[in-house]
Amino acid sequence: MRSTPSGTSWIKCLAAWCCLVAVPLSLLVVLLMPVHLDRGLLSGATTASSSWLGSKAFTCALAAVLPAAVMARFFSPIRYYLRLTTFLVSLGANSFWGVCVSIAMSLVGRGRDINYVVARSFEASTAPLVGVSLRVEGRHHLEENRPAVLVGNHQTMLDILYLGAVFPKGTAIMAKRELLYTPLLGQFMYLSKAVFVNRAKREDAVKVFAKVASEMKRKSLSLFIFPEGTRSASAVPSLLPFKKGAFHLAVQAQLPIVPIVCENYAHVYHAKSKCFDGGEIVVRVLPPISTEGLTSSHDDIQALTDKTRNAMLEAIEDLGRRRQELLSQSQPAARISDERQPLLSSPAPAPAAAGDEAQQPAEGETASATVDPEQ
Q1: Which of 178, 269, 314, 321 has a 20 to 30 Å separation from 236 between CA atoms?
Q2: pLDDT by residue (tens digit) across 280-290?
Q3: How far is 105 from 98, CA to CA, in rounded Å?
Q4: Domain spans in the chain, listed from the N-terminal domain onward
Q5: Considering the entire predicted model, what is its pTM?
Q6: In the CATH scheme, what is the code of domain 78-329?
């Protein structure tokens, strides 16, 4: 007796046939559009707009985007490259926007809020385009503790989105000096008063920390730092060892440390598996950690570093457990197994005999290794 394909297999087969039909139709529409425009079939369109729409550049753009948009709905690798390209294009556009905003806000005396405006603009414009939504827990800790040294975990380049969701006013960024020479981004960071540190020269970094600590107290400015120093690109909730620069700075300025934890978002962005499915990312702002009375001694700095890292590690592991529970509830074992088959797969095997228990996925099975393509 022939086995009958499961419901999900039928849906995938139907989706594949839709793609096979929709892609040629999209190409046909795009290729014929300039002809229709030249004949004036678009009523009410101006000559200028018709000329632009009928241009070869616009035709080529549609020819590339329309089939990709249709196929991205059903094919994970295509969706990955389409959303990644969208993210990078938006990053470049917002960097240019950031340069313009930086110049304008500096002229009107609002330079301290440049990062706030640009970060919020980037998150608001880019997150919906790549299918990401962000939810912030404990935001009041940011509002009640300023100025402060803000520290956050660093996973991939998508971290810019969570910065946009939490970045408070009157806050600058500390970054490695190499970013200063990145086109557009470097110019924006320079105009927004970012603090650049040469990690190869410890003496220079110490001098920068002393100067920045004085400026933070005098101008009531906060500073955001990634204490890991580089992207972790981890597929599981974890943290790299912390560098101590942020903690030296907080002690010198006698300002509290406010930890910000972004959950591991392997369920949203998987660079190694070429998967960019989008989804919700939760960001948790932890209570401030006081530096009052601490000195720059090795013991004090080490204790402060360990206390902060342990609090952040506990939070990211808690968020990871909660996310795994949600994924387990929304993706039953049978559905996960079926979705991992090729789109045009053979019919599903016959169901197990009555009384056999369905095999459950192991904890953490849905997460795959995440490697940032930038590294």
Answers
A1: 178
A2: 999 999 999 99
A3: 10
A4: 7-74, 78-329
A5: 0.69
A6: 3.40.1130
